[in-house]
Amino acid sequence: xxxxxxxxxxxxxxxxxxxxxxxxxxxxxxxxxxxxxxxxxxxxxxxxxxxxxxxxxxxxxxxxxxxxxxxxxxxxxxxxxxxxxxxxxxxxxxxxxxxxxxxxxxxxxxxxxxxxxxxxxxxxxxxxxxxxxxxxxxxxxxxxxxxxxxxxxxxxxxxxxxxxxxxxxxxxxxxxxxxxxxxxxxxxxxxxxxxxxxxxxxxxxxxxxxxxxxxxxxxxxxxxxxxxxxxxxxxxxxxxxxxxxxxxxxxxxxxxxxxxxxxxxxxxxxxxxxxxxxxxxxxxxxxxxxxxxxxxxxxxxxxxxxxxxxxxxxxxxxxxxxxxxxxxxxxxxxxxxxxxxxxxxxxxxxxxxxxxxxxxxxxxxxxxxxxxxxxxxxxxxxxxxxxxxxxxxxxxxxxxxxxxxxxxxxxxxxxxxxxxxxxxxxxxxxxxxxxxxxxxxxxxxxxxxxxxxxxxxxxxxxxxxxxxxxxxxxxxxxxxxxxxxxxxxxxxxxxxxxxxxxxxxxxxxxxxxxxxxxxxxxxxxxxxxxxxxxxxxxxxxxxxxxxxxxxxxxxxxxxxxxxxxxxxxxxxxxxxxxxxxxxxxxxxxxxxxxxxxxxxxxxxxxxxxxxxxxxxxxxx
Length: 620
Fold this sequence. Notes:
CATH architecture of the domain at 7-204: 3-Layer(aba) Sandwich
Strand content: 5-15%
Largest sheet: 7 strands, mixed
Radius of gyration: 28 Å
CATH superfamily of the domain at 7-204: P-loop containing nucleotide triphosphate hydrolases
Number of strands: 11
Number of helices: 26
Distance between the termini: 61 Å
């Protein structure tokens, strides 16, 4: 929390203007992320100290205009005007503009200056402007606008000292003697006059960007490149992460064995070893793949490729009634459906926004990755199909493509059945290619990886402890003459979890699933990856000899090829995530749509799993 009476400054700017980089440079790791009260638009606040004065920087959603056409743009106005409950209005505005797109950015500056708040202008990418032959006079720009102007190179920290001096005293910022005109035509003339005064040399086009874009944006070459990038993407997730995964797997197994060997036998030892370590550890094993997934996603995005990918697939999106903005939301869902659904706030059309919300959970989020990785690594041979292309990576890619294809088909159907809504033309800015600083990528990956670890340390830990008790109690009388393995299996089947598993088993038996998988499916309603922790506990309780989870399920006859294939397909489609349902409820302001999404995806999961089991069984 910020200190009482701290100065509050709103950071305003268009997407790709360097606003987020500037925010990170000013606030470091002291940023707090949350939602504005009453709305689902995400906001960040970070605190910094300037000459002993506490300054809270509010990272407002990126916007091209203060005339809103989408929910996130509407929030910008509401926050600036102090109309959001519990969020104080900023005492001043720090407007960020890209030096290379100053002509477009000045339209937003003109609107901001008319708000009658202290304003200062931060010009970013000044190094890129010079590299492209442009020359901007910042002193004349300050005189023309009537407000302080600072030039910065955010990712290198250049110009930040001068900016910090400005931030500490907004009450001393100069004000424009004459406000910019309010009418669009007159405002365009005002922009032209400012540019004529301050921009001595306009930046030329980036020849590197243009040359690369001739390939990346080509209808055929761009599509082939996109497919190639995706194939390599999933190959690397398996190839590079496996050594680290094996190391963590061995460490977890050693820790479980050490606890059993060191602590006295009893319920407490069993809870710590088979409940906490076996449950949470079975999920933590997949942290290297999660880290690699986020690293590749952030790297491609920061390089500027993801915006091009949105342009390439916009043709496909248009055929199912969506657009490039929806692709950005769906792409975010590869990390997690929750931010993916929240990212739909940039979609102006209510119908397209609702459709995107309803299909976002079909995109393969990182929570599915531990399930996929466990089953693929255990049952799919690590063989080469062609050169560096391995079978395991291709199977993982196939599951991702299956989810994406299902999302497109569902979007096409929903667009034809849901209520009509007005469509707004789609515009997309293609940023120049930039190599992101290592610190930026590391901070982004650390933020996502730490969220995964927090999830493991909260939701998965809590579920693991509850599951251990359900798997261990009530105690049943073991018939005489049973071997230790048979006695453990008997106790497990007659536990509370075993009773629950046998209750749902008739419904899932047509899919090839038994009661143990049933327990995992019920537990995974809290979060998909919980099924891995559940299976780890089931087999830790049921096995006398210490074996890894992969070896344990490989030994179980129920995990034959048809069942494994059906289970993988089930997780492609089923909506097993309470957090996703909750954010759907907030975004749509109704439980109707989360219930609809849960129902149609569960039906789709059951039908496709049943068909998969039958098809694979017939082929063998």
